[in-house]
Amino acid sequence: MKLPPFILERHFAQYEFEVPYQLSCSDCEPLRMSELLAMASPESMNLWENLQFFYTDSAGHPLLRHEVATLYEGILPEDILICAPEEGIFLVMNSLLEKGDQVVVISPAYQSLYEIATGAGCRIIPWEADDSGHYQVENLKTLVTAKTRMVVVNFPHNPTGAMVSPGDFIEISRFCDLNGIVLFSDEMYRGLEQDPADRLPGATSLSVSAVSLSGMSKSFSLPGLRIGWLACRNPATLNKLLQLKDYITICSSAPGEILSIIALQNRENILGRNRDIIAWNIRLVDQFIEDNPGLFSWNPPVAGSVAMLNLLSGQTSEQFCQDLLVEKQVLAIGSHLFNMPKPAIRLGLGRVGFAEALERVTRL
Ligand SMILES: Cc1ncc(COP(=O)(O)O)c(C=O)c1O
Q: Which atom of ligand 1 is nearest to the CA of 218?
């Protein structure tokens, strides 16, 4: 399979470690090792200190699969396959899709959510938001044809921060089931709802054939661990995914698994901390927009760590980001990197350093 460059990841690779101010990171403030280990129970500390670097269980450490399963209603450890998040997308699309299938994908989207299916010979049908930035389920239904094999959704959404209601999400799942379509739900930002009532059930809890993807990188502040998971109640599907994993990573990183167990055992602390950081940054952006009348607008996110800041000055997002980079040493991700037509930049609201980066934008 030939894949074009991953535009966003190449852009980050070029600048992320050189530019001091970051405005657009999608992860939440990464934890330090000392902070994470300070949360460990005596039992998990024992796992950490006595860890021997064998290959690990290819489906994932049993205790980690147990902890992950408890994030969902009605899910058992055997329904979980541990993998890197990005790997999970690769596994799902290459195991469950055939050349010629149609795949309805939320748009805009994290590039691999449509690119890997394209590489597998599928035709992508984008599901776009309406003019007010909402994703309408009735519109999604009109995009499905007899050839549609999979619907790919991502709520809370990267990059816009859009959400659907729990009722709409259940309707999407029901519609997919009725039409024999696999619902692939990227839930990387689940747990970051400002109001817990907005939290969606995992798609895997709603449908036996749905596949949920999530991981430690965003909501749990551990992107460098490279640990995530797929959750699916259909054993035949999970087995296909596992068989492909043998050709990629075989098994997951042993220290990453133990550190993930510690984090998930302390999930409420970590999620609460991150929701507080996001809530604080949302207030800063509201103030920033008020202080710069006519220049910016946004839809504040009800969930997740990202949202788009619309640029009303007439400048392109490319030019705006370039000026920020050169004049202010601020790295911002423009809407052009997501193929979005309107000029905007992605705001990464989960980082503590966001305030300082935003402050520098004001003085552009
Ligand atoms: C929506 C979404 N899915 C998947 C991923 C992949 O996660 P990771 O980079 O941890 O592999 C990302 C990362 O930005 C993402 O935003």
A: 10
Nearest to 353 by CA among 48, 108, 25: 25
Ligand 1 center to residue 50 CA distance, Å?
31
Domain with residue 134: its CATH number is 3.40.640.10
Q: What digits encode the pLDDT tens for the residues 95-117?
A: 999 999 999 999 999 999 999 99
187 shares a domain with 72: yes
Tell me the CA–centroid distance for residue 88 and ligand 1, in Å.
Answer: 10
List the one residue out of 289, 330, 285 whose CA is nearest residue 307. 285
Maximal C-alpha separation, the chain:
59
**89 in the same domain as 17:** no
Which residue's CA is minimally distant from atom 15 of ligand 1?
A: 110
Last residue of a domain, one of 204, 235, 266: 266
State the closest ligand 1 atom to the C-alpha of 157, by its place in the atom list counted from 1. Answer: 1
Among residues 266, 294, 321, the one where a domain terminates is 266
Shared-domain flag, residues 131 and 25: no
Q: For residues 353 and 356, what is the distance between their CA atoms, to the nearest angstrom?
A: 6
Full domain range(s) for residue 320: 7-32+268-362
292 Cα to the center of ligand 1, angstroms: 32
Q: With respect to residue 46, please indicate whether it lies within any of the assigned structural domains.
A: no
pTM across the whole model: 0.97
pLDDT in tens, 176-214: 999 999 999 999 999 999 999 999 999 999 999 999 999
Q: Are 202 and 190 in contact (CB under 8 A)?
A: yes
Return the best residue to mutate from 116, 184, 218 for the ligand 1 pocket (most ligand atoms within 8 A of CB): 218
Between the CA of residue 209 and those of 3, 86, 177, 178, 243, what are the distances in Å? Answer: 27, 20, 8, 11, 18
Q: Answer yes or no: do 58 and 180 share one domain.
A: yes
